[in-house]
Amino acid sequence: MTSFQKCILLFCYSVLVMADQNQSMEFNYHWGRGLKIPEANLTFGGYAHFSYENFEHQSDKAGIDDLSLFITWDPTSRLHLFSELEFEDAISTDGTEFSQKTFFVERLYADFLINDSFSLRFGKFLTPVGIWNTIHAAPLVWTTTRPLITEEFIFPAHSNGLMLNSHLILNDQNLEISLYADNSQHLDPHKKNISFKNALGLRINYEFMDHLHFGFSYLAFKNQAKFYPTDRNHLFGIDLIWKRKGVEIQGEFIHRRAPEQRGNETGLYLQAVLPLGHHFSAVGRYEFLEGTHQKENILENSTIHLGIAGLAWRPYSPMVFKVEYRFGGDDSIIVQDGFFASFSTFF
Question: How many domains is the chain partitioned into structurally?
């Protein structure tokens, strides 16, 4: 048993022992907010995501993409513990599989509140590059597919290490700064195909006005993957999000530079959401990616222009139905045209 697996078991065991010690605890459940045990400062929640894909010139596929369990525990006012355990692509029309390839510890970290402005995070967390990667849970995003520049062939989606977070006020607006480092190959030995060998990153997010946020990301990293560039990469990104009266505009731009030519990538996406009434919203997204793209051991040097047109229906806030069509990727090994539909909900 690895040290990381022992940490998971210890966390779950501590939760169960604590609950057993107080048989009079009250349990409060609210759909979308999870099961809360107020006396223990403990919450169980999560989400489920079901999808259907129909790529041109390929067989249809349907199944449970994600089944995630959240466990949140605040043993003291300064200590916050969080874990997300996930089954990914375990059940589909291709078959059923439950193994280390389908079960992941998506997140497992401890937050220590230093003061009202600073906190320290230790463990496994989502790499804070741009907007999408840190809020990518299916019920929170508008499309079934994620933008190309947020995929793992651009940068690993998870980090294992330390992160210092600060929340400051500048000109009466919120300023958030995160500085993080990943230099541990032992925290998560059962990593996904692409992971950091080491990394140092910075994330700045400024609330320019009440409805407009700007962000900047920088990441210097080495990959630990058989077929991906192993020299040090430097990634720069900017992003924005504007929301008002149900209308939303969101965009991200990244440039990744590496000593190896195959590591260079430049891309962006711009997404607009327009409310249609009766909890329906129209969604449109344009994507651009240029460089040498790599999928496993296959290289492709190309320029990709993608369009996505879709519809999202949120009859209740924890639940969303989505349909969309993606076009423009016919000649790419990275992405193909197709129709997508999904249903996801917090529980």
Answer: 1
Quote the CA–CA distance of 172 and 142 in Å, as a whole number: 30
Integer CA distances (angstroms), 84 to 43, 70, 76, 203, 267, in order: 12, 5, 20, 22, 30
Burial class for 283, CB neighbours closer than 10 Å (0-12, 13-18, 19+): buried
Entry pTM:
0.88
> CA–CA separation, 224 vs 160, rounded Å?
13
Q: Quick one: tokens of 50? A: 């079901």
Secondary structure class of 326 (helix, strand, coil): strand
Query: What letter represents residue 134's amino acid?
Result: T
Provide block-wise average pLDDT over 10 residues at a time, the chain (347 residues). 54 59 75 92 96 84 92 95 89 60 86 96 96 94 96 91 96 95 69 78 94 96 69 93 95 89 85 97 97 72 92 96 92 84 97
Question: H-type helices in 22-114, by residue range?
Answer: none
What is residue 1's three-state secondary structure? coil
User: Which residues on adjacent β-strands are paired with residue 119?
Assistant: 113, 165
Cα 79 to Cα 72, 111, 122, 202, 264, distances in angstroms? 11, 6, 11, 23, 40
Give exposure, 260-281, as e/b (b: 16+ Cβ within 10 Å): eebbbbbbbbbbbbeeeeeeeb
Q: What is the residue range of 117's domain? A: 3-346
C-alpha 325/C-alpha 51 separation (Å) is 13
Cβ atoms within 10 A of the Cβ of 244, count? 10
Q: What letter does residue 262 receive in the DSSP assignment?
A: G
C-alpha distances in Å from residue 241, one per residue of 44, 110, 170, 190, 206: 30, 28, 19, 34, 11
**Which token pair is 172?**
């009466």
CATH code, domain carrying 150: 2.40.160.10
Residue 345: name the closest of 88, 137, 52, 70 by CA: 137
